[in-house]
Each structure stands twice: as structure tokens, then as C-alpha cells.
Amino acid sequence: MRRPVIAGNWKMYKTPSEAVVLAKGIVKALSSLNGPEVVVCPPFAALTAVGQVVAGSRIGLGAQNLHWAKEGAYTGEVSADMLRDIGCRYVIVGHSERRQYFGETDENVNKKSCAALATGLIPIVCVGETLAEREAGRADAVVEMQLKGALSGLSPEQVRRLIFAYEPVWAIGTGQTATPIQAEEMHAHIRKTIAMLVDAEIASGVRILYGGSVKPDNAKELLDRPEIDGALIGGASLQAESFAAIARAATK
Predict the structure, then answer these.
(1) Domains in the chain, CATH or no CATH each
(2) What's residue 51's pLDDT?
(3) Please, are residues 165 and 232 in contact by the beta-carbon 8 Å criterion?
């Protein structure tokens, strides 16, 4: 069975002191939880402080982005080695907001994933279509193209270590959510595409999360779908109890 993953993307919210309070609340709320793999991804400035809070707990630490170079004159960037050194185990790669606002390309997603894997980090690779692309009937093709770019040159064993997240862009921060059927259909398509590009056995084992306005009141209906292996959560991860409620919903 694929172990569910519940990951909180705090985006550009929470100062380090606020992040510590939130992290402590999450650790306390989930202290007795068994089942899902739980990850929090604070802003860069809060990573060290949050890492100290979650150390020794069931909660893993992740970053929201990285640069593909090991080091160099890249002002404002951080490397995989830097993230590992402060205790990160995961890193989000190719989030739609990075694509939309900062020009992230499929090629960049591939290079960042390779850098993360080389350093022992687990990339959470995001894919997803816009509303215009879905309405034009291109959702499957767009996601397939993103996967081809992200996985280019990766070995089957490298792909096995990835976590994928399907995030319909039209459902991120909008209050809209893909129906469980829509989400599961796309998750199945992602798995089929990975099987075609890499290997059927690898595809059957990789975990694919859903992201897009996941909340405590819709989490169980989504997470009960066989193809949905967890959630990448934005706004609802900024309150300990709502995040904990979603994590509990992933316990099958």
C-alpha cells in the first residue's frame, strides 16, 4: 500500500516566531497520529526554527523551492545542500505559483528535482492545468507535457523516490475544489503517464497528492479515493487544528 502524505505549504505566511507557534501546535495535535507521513513547508526564514520544533517528532520538514546549482553567484537562492544541512527532508518543486509568478519551466523543474535527489531530498513535484486549459479540453495533455519535462533523463529508481502533487491551478486559493471524481481521473492519468514514460511497477508505487483548496470538510471525500495518496495543503495548513483534521482524515 502507498502510505498517504499530508504536506502543508505555508507559502509566504508566518514570521519565524509565528511559525514556531504553529509548528508546536501541529506537533501537539498530531502527537498520537499513526498512518500518514506528515510534512510542513515553512518559508525559508522559518526553516531552522521550525526544524528545531519538529525534530524528534512525527513531522517532517520541507522547503518550498531550491536552486539546481550546488553553489555559486545566485543571489537570493538556496541550494539542496543548504536545505539538507538545516534538517529538510522534502522540497516542493514546480508549484503553480512558481510557474505563474516566477517563470518556472518544466526544464527548471527537472533540474531542481535532479539536484534535490542528488542531495538526498525528496522532491514533491507539482503539475496541474489552468481553468482555460481545462475548459479547452487540454487538461490531460498539459499535465502529460509537464510530466515529460519533469521526468526527462531520470532513472526509474530516481522516479521511485519522487512524490507528485496534482494541483489544478483553478482550484488553488479560490475556494473551488476539483470534485473527487475529477481529481481521481487526473491522478489515474498521471499514474498512466508515469507508467508509459518510466515503468508500470514504478507508477503503481509512486504517491500522488491532491492540492487545491483542501479543507477539513472535504478532505475525507477526496482522500478516500483509491488513486489519491494524500494532500498538499495551502491555507488550511496555517492553523494547527485544521491541518491536523486533514491529517486524521488520511488515516485509512
Answers:
(1) 5-240 (3.20.20.70)
(2) 98
(3) yes
